[in-house]
Amino acid sequence: MSTLVPDAHEAAPSGPAAPRRDLAQLGLAAVLAVVGGLTVYDATTLGTGFADPVGPRVFPYVIGTGLVVLAVLLAVATLRGDVPEAEGGEDVDLTSPADWLTVVKLVAVLLFTIATVDLLGWAISGAVLFAGAAWSLGSRTLLRDVLVGAVLAVASWYAFYVGLGIPLAPGILDGIL
């Protein structure tokens, strides 16, 4: 016997599926809006120079406004159902776990640099930072890394001191640099 009434176990076709929304993007939009709003507010508290027609407020206004506009655009796109394309992992194995040992090594090298920059100076601490970061990321040419780090650290020390007039800590090399 045939029935014209659909069986209770059969799914009745429904209307179009609701768009999938990635609500985490709304959190990111909120953070962008807050940071942008605080940046604009902070710009209003800056003083202006008497001879500077542009003043120091322009860039914080532009950056803060840009962040707020991006937050609004992201929120609208999220509410419309736009979902970012998933990372294809071109050369990254997305199934492999994070390499926390490398992260710990990098943090240790950074903390060492922070702790010793006043004592040893930027030239030495910067060289150790470069060589330590290279070692943490897998380099096995320690001598080359130390030499490149030393050249970059001394060059950046002179660039800041001579080029920008900003003295970095000379440390134990005070009087030599």
UniProtKB/TrEMBL annotation:
Coiled coil: none annotated. Residues 28-168 form the DUF1468 domain. The keyword Cytoplasm does not apply. It comes from the Bacteria. The keyword Membrane applies. InterPro entries: DUF1468 (IPR009936). Keywords: Membrane, Transmembrane, Transmembrane helix. The chain crosses the membrane at residues 23-46, 58-79, 106-134, 146-169. This is Tripartite tricarboxylate transporter TctB family protein. It comes from Nocardioides oceani.
